[in-house]
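note to self: the first set is below, dont mix up w the second
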Amino acid sequence: MELPGIKARSLAVNLPFGLGSLQFEANEVEQRAAWSLYVELMTRTAMQPLGVHEGSLREMLDSLYSLFVLTREILRQSGPAVAHGPDSFGPVAIDILNTGLRPFCSKWHPLLQAYEVKRPPDVPRLEHEQGWEYYHQMRRELEGLQKQMGVYADALASIAGAK
């Protein structure tokens, strides 16, 4: 479905989290929405590689969670032109949140939060976090998530016409 005054561009993109690939025609509204989300995604702390003792798991989780808020806002602002079928930008963006990000955040947020409340006042937050028994496991899973989100970023760039 092409909306009046909105040109479509045919493309094929690979999707992360086992969602396969997608062939569709991205209209200009989808292209703008994809660009907005691409910029937000690529400038998030959660998308940046971390050295062994760099960064904070809490900051990473907060950064990932912000993608829910930003995606919702971008989709709301873009309107129904991004949701003209199950293989259009809007439904795919929602699938990425629910299939890819939500399981990671739902698993790690309560576990980390339960550990954070045990931090003695005289121990720096980052030092306490690095002493957590699940610290290395969460970082490994975060690295895997970042790789999948990199596939999503590539798809967004393609949809936006930036690649």
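second set (the one i keep forgetting abt)
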Amino acid sequence: MPRVKLPGALLLSGLVLGILSAFFSGCEPAPKLPYYVSADFTPVWKRAEGRRHAIHPYSLVDQDGKVVTEKTFDGHIYVANFFFVSCPGICPRMSGNLETLQSAFRDDPDVLFLSHSVTPEMDSVPALKRYADLHHAVSGKWHLVTGKRAEIYGLARTSYFADESKDIPGGAGDFLHTEKMFLVDRHGHLRGVYNGVLPAEMNRIKEDIRLLKQEK
């Protein structure tokens, strides 16, 4: 059988395609959810982003009197928010929405929930336990935590960028108020920000959790 001679342009095209295929086959696929690394919540899409932000270390106590740290959530996807027990307005709505999310992922050990008290000097462990029971929080699944005010507020502002005021007060009357919920991946990276009082946003969180579960 005679040998078929390919035109030079076709040979070159095949060579280029082969090189490109080899190059891209060694690259990680782009994440399906962005990373958030700053208070302006500009999305970052590169996995190898040098500025990639992670939740800072902490040590708090939950409604069962158990110590909760960032390592509690290692390898888990979780939703976090900030609230206080005596809040009459947005907190019950956010907690009700978290209760809905907990029901959706009740049997999924990969998904956890974390609610930080912004009035920790008032929200004792027994007070948190009563609030947790009111919203059917499952122990070990949904942690409602208290601790030192400075530590919680530091987490809110430097880990979650949760403070919605432009001026950050530093005195005894310091108070943080936010409707945001935050989605954190298995490695402690901030991957989603939502309006925690809107039921429709819970559907978006559910879908984003499912996307994160597909990531390694």
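remember for set 2: Confidence is low (pLDDT under 50) at residues 8-26, 166-172.
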